[in-house]
Amino acid sequence: MLHQINTYQELDIFLKKTGWQSFEELVADVFNKHGYTTTIRKKYFDVIALKNDKKIYVECKKHKKHNNSQLISFVKHHEKKVEKKGETLLITLNSSPQIIKNTLIIPFHLLNEYLLNN
C-alpha cells in the first residue's frame, strides 16, 4: 500500500474514502518498515507481525472514540484468540496509550515510535 500520510487530518480523510481494510494495511505497512513480516486478516487477526522470535497479534480499531468499557471488551475478545506465546497490541485512531490486562493500546500516530523503542 505505502500511502504517505503525515497528519491526523490526512489519515481521517483517507479512512473516510476507504474501508477498514485500509487501516489494517496502513498498520501492516508501519510494521513492515520496521523489518517485520506481516500477514493481514489471517486466523481472525487483523495483522500478525513477525520479526526474529517476536510475534505480535494486532487488532485495529478505526473508530474515532472508544470508552474504557469498549476497550476492555475489545481486549478480552482479542486475548481469547491469541496463542500463549506472542504479544497483543490494539491500535486505535486516537485513544490514550494504556495497558489493559496484557494488551498495549496505542493510537496509530504512536505506532512508529513504539516500534522504534521495542
Structure description:
The structure is a single chain. The chain has 4 helices and 6 strands. The chain starts with 7 loop residues before the first helix and ends with a helix. The mean pLDDT is about 80. By secondary structure, it is of the alpha/beta class. The protein has a single domain, classed as 3-Layer(aba) Sandwich (Trna Endonuclease, Chain: A, domain 1), CATH 3.40.1350. The protein is about 40% helix and about 30% strand. The chain is globular and about 35 Å long. Strands 1-2-3-4-6-5 form a 6-stranded mixed beta sheet, sandwiched between helices. The longest helix is centred in the first third of the chain and has 14 residues.
Describe the structure using short key phrases.
118 residues, alpha/beta, Trna Endonuclease, Chain: A, domain 1, six-stranded mixed β-sheet, 4 helices
Short structural description:
The chain is of the alpha/beta class and 118 residues long. The chain has four helices and six strands.
Topology:
Elements: H1 8-17, H2 20-33, E1 37-42, E2 45-51, E3 54-61, H3 68-81, E4 87-92, E5 98-100, E6 103-107, H4 111-117
Parallel strand pairs: 3-4, 4-6
Antiparallel strand pairs: 1-2, 2-3, 5-6
